[in-house]
Automatic annotation (TrEMBL):
Phylogenetic placement of the source organism: Bacteria, Pseudomonadati, Campylobacterota, Epsilonproteobacteria, Campylobacterales
Protein name (database record): Lipoprotein
Organism: Campylobacter californiensis
Length: 51
């Protein structure tokens, strides 16, 4: 019974880590896209003001 409980706890731990890693990757991707958009908006604004 102990071994079964241990295996279950390990399984839950690895599943949680997997979900966390997927969330980190998604958040990083979203942050990168947001940054690209803001930099592009800023560059467009500067270009319009200097022309």
């Amino acid at each position: 019974m102990r071994i079964l409980s241990f295996v279950f706890v390990i399984f839950v731990f690895f599943t949680g880590c997997s979900n966390t890693w997927s969330g980190i990757k998604a958040d990083s991707s979203n942050a990168a896209e947001w940054t690209k958009e803001k930099i592009n908006d800023g560059a467009t604004y500067v270009k319009e003001k200097t022309e």
